[in-house]
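Before relying on records like the one below, remember that each one covers exactly one chain. Contacts with other chains, cofactors or solvent are not represented anywhere in the record.
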Amino acid sequence: MIHPSAIVDPGARLGRDVEIGPYAVIGAEVEIGDGCVIGPHCTISGPTRIGRGNRFHSHAAVGGDPQDKKFAGERTELVIGDDNAFREFVTVNRGTGTGGGLTKIGDRNLFLAYVHIAHDCIVGNDTVFSNNATLAGHVTVGDWVIMSGFAGVHQFCRIGEHAFIGMGCLVNGDVPPYLMVADKYAEPRGINAEGLKRRGFDAERIAAIKRAYRAVYMSGKPLAEAKQELAESAGQSDDVRRMLEFIERSERGLLR
């Protein structure tokens, strides 16, 4: 199921029922899992490992060299999980030798047109990246995150699970789990309550997350005191514990 105009390097490995469309180019050291569909004019460069059931729409370009002046041609890798969708003109770069050598994408993610995932990024599962959302290098994105259109994340930032990044936001700090941020330079705007309800969070869990948000963002307390308040309630709520652990690991600095 390879179109005659496609170019597939002899060193590429294709699983069962892989479809490759017109004028696609599959490079050396590329592994494509069962049931993947590679649309017309796509480019997949290696070393790249792709799981099962992924769909790449026209002109997607994944596995290319990192856009980093420090990159000197060292062997680095891109790893993609299962059942992801990459729409038109999405770009995903491999890692860098100085950044761990790996860009990694999980399962069931949706990347709309013109999304860019830079070198050494780690993206979890079940995320949605709307059109033109962009990650700089070394960004970590947790499960169930929604990136709205034209949002951008500064290098080395982390986005916690279930966070919602508003349209056009420029994120330059760590966003804890469950938060919603908005405005040109991203500012906290509460928790992603609607998203949590859709994913089955009950009223008790959401109330605990709201209390944690108020402690960190609305109480006016220094961060050390807010963290102490979270620590005191973490035993009764796994969600609060996850927020506290995320904040404790922050190196870039908390968006606050």
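Residues 196-248 form a domain with the Udp N-acetylglucosamine O-acyltransferase; Domain 2 fold (CATH 1.20.1180).
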